[in-house]
């Protein structure tokens, strides 16, 4: 054993600069390229937020129209992606389905020379690849849910913008504006969050000069875990277990006695509340009113107040987004894929930033295994 200081989980370690977003736990704020995320969620379509993350500035009307036109070109589910999804068992987790679909898109992308020496791609190639993935993911997520429900695929509609078309392809009917607005806000809130586990995974892969698709596939793997993106799905499981507000106290007594983690609460960086929660909670409240589900509000409030008063640990974004996606009609298994559809914008912004100023990410470890030992009878070559 050595006496080096180990930073388990890299907690508190600053590994690089980023201009993509700034998380400030002291002021409970999150800025994308300088703009508070609450302001972006309230005023911008998700397409403009994607543009901002990639380009550093909000788009002009013309730039937004151009991105929207490009997004429409890649909206339909490609035949080979659909064929690959159809090969998977219906029981496959949708995160695995989306991960596979992204791999197929990457393997089918003929831009670049095809040599590993050029895998990292030029800035132009990587921006085009980022737009392609962001535009393709809604159809993949929507088709996944429909396939599991035994429903036919719904082709995209060119007259609808990103969020409305996403809901159209999932449900086959036009969503009410209040639902589109809540969904659009959730997409903005999930889009970016500095060096979280999945983004850091994407940056590690990119640092080897691998390609953007490989980095996104790796990031999806990191996002799947319940300590990260998988928590929005886990929140709904908890809500279903509890059932209704009056069961919160006995349920929590038992869960805490069993030392269970309560999904949707706690954060590595924010210790006094997640900056994104108030905006998402407002969106959830509009959905609760729209769908007339006061029971959801009662359960949400009861669990939050009981857990916060007992543990002093606050909700994270997954706590309001889980019930919001459930009210909209998404299956619980689809929640974390929705996170991918949004976060792919942040991941790819980081991939491009890492590529522009790369250093191989390769930390050290302190060895604590057996002392040097030898194979009996081994005689080294002369
Ligand atoms: N439920 C119960 N106890 C908790 C929770 C929770 N949700 N979160 C933290 N704690 C407790 C831990 O048990 C630990 O207690 P101890 O010191 O008595 O052992 C203490 O608080 C510190 O927790 P850590 O897990 O060590 O803190 P860390 O900063 O590593 O954890 C994390 C952050 C992983 C998010 C944690 O809070 C957690 O597991 N939360 C539940 C999963 C979740 O909601 N993840 C979503 C993250 S946000 C996102 O991806 C959008």
TrEMBL record:
<dbReference type="InterPro" id="IPR036969">
    <property type="entry name" value="Citrate_synthase_sf"/>
</dbReference>
<dbReference type="InterPro" id="IPR011278">
    <property type="entry name" value="2-MeCitrate/Citrate_synth_II"/>
</dbReference>
<keyword id="KW-0808">Transferase</keyword>
<dbReference type="InterPro" id="IPR019810">
    <property type="entry name" value="Citrate_synthase_AS"/>
</dbReference>
<dbReference type="GO" id="GO:0006099">
    <property type="term" value="P:tricarboxylic acid cycle"/>
</dbReference>
<dbReference type="GO" id="GO:0005829">
    <property type="term" value="C:cytosol"/>
</dbReference>
<protein>
    <recommendedName>
        <fullName>Citrate synthase</fullName>
    </recommendedName>
</protein>
<keyword id="KW-0012">Acyltransferase</keyword>
<comment type="pathway">
    <text>Carbohydrate metabolism; tricarboxylic acid cycle.</text>
</comment>
<keyword id="KW-0816">Tricarboxylic acid cycle</keyword>
<dbReference type="InterPro" id="IPR016142">
    <property type="entry name" value="Citrate_synth-like_lrg_a-sub"/>
</dbReference>
<feature type="active site">
    <location>
        <position position="267"/>
    </location>
</feature>
<comment type="similarity">
    <text>Belongs to the citrate synthase family.</text>
</comment>
<dbReference type="Pfam" id="PF00285">
    <property type="entry name" value="Citrate_synt"/>
</dbReference>
<dbReference type="InterPro" id="IPR016143">
    <property type="entry name" value="Citrate_synth-like_sm_a-sub"/>
</dbReference>
<dbReference type="InterPro" id="IPR002020">
    <property type="entry name" value="Citrate_synthase"/>
</dbReference>
<dbReference type="GO" id="GO:0005975">
    <property type="term" value="P:carbohydrate metabolic process"/>
</dbReference>
<dbReference type="InterPro" id="IPR024176">
    <property type="entry name" value="Citrate_synthase_bac-typ"/>
</dbReference>
<feature type="active site">
    <location>
        <position position="318"/>
    </location>
</feature>
<dbReference type="GO" id="GO:0036440">
    <property type="term" value="F:citrate synthase activity"/>
</dbReference>
């Amino acid at each position: 054993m050595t006496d080096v200081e180990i930073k388990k989980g890299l907690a508190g370690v600053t590994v690089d600069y980023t201009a993509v977003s700034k998380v400030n736990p002291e002021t409970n704020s999150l800025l994308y390229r300088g703009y508070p995320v609450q302001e972006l969620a309230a005023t911008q379509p998700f397409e403009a937020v994607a543009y901002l993350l990639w380009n550093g500035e909000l788009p002009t009307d013309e730039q937004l129209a151009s991105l929207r036109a490009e997004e429409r070109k890649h909206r339909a589910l490609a035949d080979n992606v659909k064929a690959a999804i159809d090969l998977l068992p219906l029981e496959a987790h949708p995160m695995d389905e989306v991960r596979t679909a992204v791999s197929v898109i990457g393997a089918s992308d003929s831009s670049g020379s095809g040599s590993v020496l050029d895998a990292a791609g030029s800035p132009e190639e990587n921006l085009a690849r980022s737009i392609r993935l962001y535009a393709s993911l809604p159809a993949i997520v929507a088709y996944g849910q429909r396939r599991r429900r035994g429903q036919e695929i719904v082709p995209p509609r060119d007259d609808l913008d990103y969020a409305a078309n996403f809901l159209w392809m999932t449900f086959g009917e036009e969503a009410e504006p209040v639902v589109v607005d809540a969904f659009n806000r959730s997409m903005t809130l999930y889009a970016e969050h500095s060096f979280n586990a999945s983004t850091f995974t994407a940056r590690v892969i990119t640092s080897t000069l691998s390609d953007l698709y490989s980095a996104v596939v790796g990031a999806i793997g990191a996002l799947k875990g319940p300590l990260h993106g998988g928590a929005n799905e886990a929140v709904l499981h908890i809500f279903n277990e509890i059932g209704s507000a009056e069961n919160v106290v006995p349920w929590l007594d038992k869960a805490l006695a069993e030392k269970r983690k309560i999904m949707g609460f706690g954060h590595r960086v924010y210790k006094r509340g997640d900056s994104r929660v108030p905006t998402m909670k407002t969106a959830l409240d509009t959905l609760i009113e729209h769908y007339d589900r006061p029971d959801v509000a009662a359960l949400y409030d009861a669990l939050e107040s009981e857990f916060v008063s007992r543990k002093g640990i606050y909700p994270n974004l997954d706590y309001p987004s889980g019930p919001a996606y459930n009210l909209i009609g998404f299956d619980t298994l689809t929640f974390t894929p929705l996170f991918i559809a949004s976060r792919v914008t942040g991941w790819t912004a980081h991939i491009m930033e890492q590529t522009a100023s790369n250093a191989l990410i390769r930390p050290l470890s302190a060895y604590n295994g057996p002392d040097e030992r030898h194979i009996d009878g081994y005689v080294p070559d002369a």
